[in-house]
Each structure stands twice: as C-alpha cells, then as structure tokens.
C-alpha cells in the first residue's frame, strides 16, 4: 500500500516503523526537520518537511497515488484539514485522523465526520481507547493485558506465571485434557524476553507471560487456573485529572457503585473543574509525588493506584511510592517505550502505552482482507488478529489438523453464530466464522492472505 503519515512523533514513527517493515510504500510529513531526519536515517521511508495539511506538501509526498492518509500530528485541526485536503484534491480512498479533543467527539455531533461534511473514515481518540483499556485492567486484576474480540465475546489476556501458579511444569496438552470444558487456549508465551508460540508438549515455567485466548465469561476462571485470584479493586486512587483520568473516574462512577475513587490533580483550576464534573469522586489538589498528599488520599488502604499524568517519570515514581506506602497494586501510563523495559524491576505491576493502543487501532484498517480487529503485542513482536473467514479462504473446509498452517501463528478461538468454539484437530472452519489468531510479526502477511478474496471468487 502507498500510505502518507502526517506527524513524525512517537505514534507516527511507530506506525511508519511497522508499515515500512512490511514493505509498504511510506511517506511521512512533519514540520520538524530533526524528526524527519531521524526517520530518514533509521527507516526505509520518504520524509518531507512541511505542514501535512498543505496541498503542495501532500502532493510532493505522493497524495495522488496514495491509498491511505494517517494524520497523527499533535493538533486535531491539522489532522482534520489534512484528511479534508487529501479527499477534496487527491481523492485518497482511506482517511484516518487522531482526534484528542472531546469537543469533536460528542455523540450529538457524530455526523460531523461523515462523507457529506468532513469525510474522515476512521476517527481515533487515544484518550478513550486508553481509558477503556485501563477500565478492562481494573475489571480483570491479575491480567497484565486485556483485549476483547468478536462483539466482546472473546478476550485475550496476558497472565504472568508466578511461583505458586498451579499450571506450571504441566504440558499444555495435558491441561486441555484436565479442563475439556474450558474454552481457553495458550497461544503465545514470552520467556526471558523471547516471544514464541508453544506446542502441545511445551510447559509453562515460573516467570513466563502467557497469552491466553478465552471466552469472555470464562476469563475469571482462566485467571484462577493460573493462580490469580485477585479481587476487583474497590478503593482506587487516580493520579492525573486529564481527559483519560476524568473518563476513567466518570465511567467507574457509572458502572461500579461499590468503588470509592480519589483523584490527585496538580493544576488547581483543573482540580476544581473535575470536582464539579464528578459526583462521588474525592478530588485532591497537589502533586502525586507528595507523600503527605498520598497518605491524605488513604493510599495505604487502596487496592489500586492508577497513574495517568502526562509525565512518565511522575507516573513511575508515584506508582512506586504508592506501593511502598501500602497500596496493593498499581497501573502506570507510560508514553516513552524505552521506560517499559524497566517497569517490572522497579515494582510496577502493569502499564498502558498510548502509542501501542493507537498503532493497534490503525493497523486494523491497514490490514487487507476481512480483518475486523488487531492488537499489537510487545512493540510489534506479534499481533492478535480477528478475521472473518471467506468461502475462498484456505482455512475453510479441511479439519484443522489437516491444515498446513505457516510457522508463527496459532488459532485461539472461533466465533460462530454467537458461540465461542475452542479450536481442535477435528474442527472445520466455515465461511463467515470469525477467527482469532495469534501471529508472530513474520507471519502477519500470511495471515492476511488467508482472509483475502481470491481472484477465482469473481
């Protein structure tokens, strides 16, 4: 595909890195000569210095032949105008824009981005995406990553195997025999920094991070099987009252009557504004690094500390302080991917990276074939993909045991007529089945091909 990316920040760079590695034709635009030079030096892409919303810059970047424009600059208005210009002047088929301001995203303004007004095909709101991921983590303590597929009927959870994990040192095939009624499949394992797809004879060991695909209503049972019996947090402290923090607090108020939430916000005016917007949440004004303020928020009795400020260092340090003051667990928002490698060693239980969340949403629309959802894992080392099987797909017809599946992929679940089916050798995939697959990076293109309409179909 020929793709133009407007914005060479962390998200734009991350998208360019992933798509260029897959041999797409990428042009990236940014007003910063330094960022463009860095992209040119490290990636096989074309870089252009200028405004992504200016017609002449888009033309130089190849907008006339582009299949897609992805506008992820820091400014919503630039992203909107870039998509509008790409549509009006260059007829670019697919337009994706990152929109951060919630003013544009009010439900009663939903027609704003329709083809008749501002023709943007996909709106990505990092704040809402990250907020929903945080809420999923709260709902499923014990999981370090949670993603839902197939109309929320299937979940992929990443589960850490601790020393008291009951399933370690047991062949995976034996687990299936012990729990034949449990629709859950271990599709990937991260061990000592290496991600691989396990075979039926493989065993999990202490320290492994297991990626498990399961029916949504069986996720808690699956976590229990791995020794994670943590109770859902009811006493929560949130550091940071920005768009994400406010969204999380509001949603908790709406969904969970038992939860008691306290929020720490550094800016006085913002603290007053969010106190007016929230009904049951106690808002404290000050720094999340102030030990006295943390104690005033009863951090020593809290089940969970969620650090959602705009500063990675504040999020890391306040999470560590909370744990040392007696908080049971923590979750930190980390923007800079280089910090992700040290979080475990300093005592952070779980992290959320907005860049990864945004890249996953964009990949869903870049992937060819009947791809319904994509979630990127470990900075692109693998993807969880939900795809719809077509009549012409090589997956349709034979028993699964007869399929010559490429190395680097494993089927986690099949969704058919509202039912979640665990894959087995005697199962056949039917047209319109929705298949959830774990694929290592090198196998993603082959997975795409399996779900594309072949020429013989026409």
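-> sequence recovered:
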């Amino acid at each position: 595909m020929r793709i133009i990316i407007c914005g060479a920040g962390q998200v734009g760079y991350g998208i360019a890195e992933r798509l260029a590695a897959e041999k797409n034709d990428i042009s990236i635009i940014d007003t910063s000569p330094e960022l463009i030079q860095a992209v040119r030096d490290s990636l096989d892409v074309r870089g252009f210095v200028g405004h992504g919303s200016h017609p002449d810059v888009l033309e130089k970047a190849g907008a006339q032949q582009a299949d897609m424009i992805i506008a992820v600059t820091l400014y919503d208005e630039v992203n909107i105008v870039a998509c509008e210009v790409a549509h009006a002047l260059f007829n670019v088929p697919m337009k994706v824009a990152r929109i951060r301001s919630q003013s544009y995203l009010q439900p009663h303004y939903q027609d704003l981005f329709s083809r008749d007004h501002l023709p943007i095909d996909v709106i990505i709101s990092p704040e809402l995406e990250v907020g929903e991921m945080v809420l999923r983590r709260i709902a499923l303590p014990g999981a370090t990553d949670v993603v839902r597929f197939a109309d929320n009927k299937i979940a992929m959870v990443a589960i850490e195997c601790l020393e008291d994990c009951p399933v370690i040192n047991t062949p995976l095939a034996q687990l299936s025999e012990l729990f034949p009624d449990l629709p859950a499949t271990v599709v990937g394992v991260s061990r000592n920094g290496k991600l691989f797809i396990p075979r039926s004879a493989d065993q999990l060991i202490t320290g492994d991070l297991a990626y498990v695909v399961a029916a949504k209503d069986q996720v808690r049972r699956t976590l229990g099987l791995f020794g994670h019996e943590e109770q859902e947090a009811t006493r929560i402290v949130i550091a940071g009252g920005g768009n994400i923090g406010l969204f999380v607090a509001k949603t908790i108020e709406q969904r969970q009557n038992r939860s008691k939430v306290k929020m720490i916000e550094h800016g006085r005016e913002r603290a007053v504004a969010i106190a007016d917007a929230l009904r049951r949440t106690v808002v404290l004004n000050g720094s999340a690094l102030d030990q006295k303020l943390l104690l005033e928020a009863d951090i020593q009795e809290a089940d969970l500390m969620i650090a959602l400020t705009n500063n990675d260092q504040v999020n890391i340090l306040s999470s560590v302080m909370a744990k040392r003051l007696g908080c049971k667990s923590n979750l930190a928002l980390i923007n800079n991917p280089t910090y992700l490698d040290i979080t475990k060693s300093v005592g952070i239980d779980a992290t959320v990276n907005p860049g990864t969340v945004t890249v996953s949403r964009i990949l869903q629309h870049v992937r060819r074939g009947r791809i319904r959802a994509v979630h990127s894992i470990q900075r692109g080392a693998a993807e969880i993909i939900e795809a719809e099987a077509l009549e012409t797909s090589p997956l349709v017809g034979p028993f699964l045991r007869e399929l010559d599946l490429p190395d680097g992929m494993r089927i986690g679940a099949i969704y058919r007529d509202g039912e979640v089916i665990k894959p087995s050798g005697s199962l056949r995939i039917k047209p319109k089945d929705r298949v959830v697959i774990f694929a290592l990076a090198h196998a993603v293109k082959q997975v795409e091909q399996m779900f594309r309409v072949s020429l013989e179909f026409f």
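The first helix runs from residue 10 to 21.
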